Amino acid sequence: MDNTFWALVGLVLFFVVVFYVKAPTKVGKNLDDRADRIRKEIEEARELKEEAKQQLAEYQRRRREAEQEAKDIIAAAKREAEAMLKEARQRNEDYVERRTAMAEAKIAQAESDAIAEVRASAINIAVEASAKIIADRNSGGSSGQFIDTSIAEVRKRLN
């Protein structure tokens, strides 16, 4: 009975106690429970991964839609700006045409007025010159009244 024998007895007692307490089944059960928890966590991780993929796809779709909408808005704004610019140019051209026509009409009216004024002035000068010439020739009595009447009638008809 030496130390080796007692070590063997202690080892055998240890194994008997371990089997009496059902340690291998408890260890196996704990390992099985842990394996089940790990499987569940892996499955949850897969589900979360799938959900994340779906959310990513949804966000990418929304981003593409937002980009397309932004492009559409920009294109609409460009079309509207071009239309406004075209309308403004047309209004400007119309305004210039109206102002040009008004200026031309004023010029034509001024020209007509100048021609009429020159004619009236020429007629007045001609009538006065004729009156002076006739008066100088007929420096007599009653013919002066007849001449004045004739000159007034000529003026009336020429103007």
Give a structural overview.
InterPro entries: ATP_synth_b/b'su_bac/chlpt, ATP_synthase_B_chain. It comes from Jiella endophytica. Belongs to the ATPase B chain family. It is a single-pass membrane protein. This protein is mainly α and 159 residues long. Helix content is 94%, strand content 0%. The protein has 3 helices and no strands. Helix 2 runs antiparallel to helix 3. The longest helix is centred in the middle third of the chain and has 115 residues. The termini are far apart. The mean pLDDT is 87.
Q: TL;DR?
A:
The chain has about 160 residues and is mostly helical. It has helices at about 5-20, 25-135, 145-159.
Which descriptors apply to this entry?
3 helices; mainly alpha; 159 residues; single chain; transport; rod-shaped; hydrogen ion transport
> Structural class of the secondary elements?
mainly alpha
Largest sheet: none
Show unreliable segments: none
Average of pLDDT: 87
Beta-strand residue percentage? under 5%
Give the number of DSSP strands: 0
Number of helices: 3
- So what's the overall shape? rod-shaped
Number of spatially distinct domains: 1
Distance between the termini: 168 Å
Protein name: ATP synthase subunit b
Membrane topology: Single-pass membrane protein
Family: Belongs to the ATPase B chain family.
Coiled coil: 28-105
